Amino acid sequence: MIESKTRAPSGVTAICAAVLAALGSLAHLLGAACGFVLALMPPRVDCAVSPCPQPAYLPYLAVTAGVGSLLLGVGWLLGAGARGLFRRRPEGRRKVLIGSTLVIVGHLIGLAVVAILIGNGTITDSDAVDFSVTVAIALVFPLLTLALAGAPTTARWLSPR
């Protein structure tokens, strides 16, 4: 009988995915903190010169707090997933896959919103190009994290020994 000699997976893909997920977690938690700080800051308007925009400020506050909450959730999910991957737990891989997918979907929703705002004439084409390039660059990291966490070698490394 011929025995196939297969090497045990080294875990490089899983460790790289864990490092990227940890960095993504830190970025999202920092973004959530900045979002909450911005939501708490009132707009800088001199109410003696122009009417105070308090009613118009409430939707901005709601959107900023909502996005901050989503960033907080995704940051927690990626952080918990990174910790799980470092500890060789399969649920860590699932959390990283879900978190990375949520980040990608969020960026795609942002692009769709920009397309709608271009159609309305709310933003200029140059602003849209700037945002689109930023999103394209920002998508590299969650896509790479998703690919590394979803790799079969990551699953083999996480499987019970």
Describe it.
The longest helix is centred in the middle third of the chain and has 33 residues, at about 55-85. The chain is elongated and about 75 Å long. It has one domain (about 10-40, about 55-160). The protein has helices at about 10-40, 55-85, 90-120, 125-150, 150-160. Helix 1 runs antiparallel to helix 2 (about 55-85), helix 2 packs antiparallel against helix 3 (about 90-120) and helix 3 (about 90-120) runs antiparallel to helix 4 (about 125-150). The protein has five helices and no strands. The mean pLDDT is about 85. Helix content is about 80%, strand content about 0%. It is an all-alpha fold and about 160 residues long.
Structural domain count: 1
Q: Helicity, in percent?
A: over 70%
* Spatial extent as radius of gyration: 21 Å
Helix and strand composition category: mainly alpha
Strand content: under 5%
Mean pLDDT reading:
85
Protein topology:
Blueprint lengths: L11 H29 L13 H33 L3 H31 L4 H26 L1 H7 L3
What's the quick description here?
The protein has 161 residues and is mainly α. The chain contains 5 helices and no strands.
Characteristic terms for this protein:
elongated, 5 helices, mainly alpha, 161 residues, 78% helix
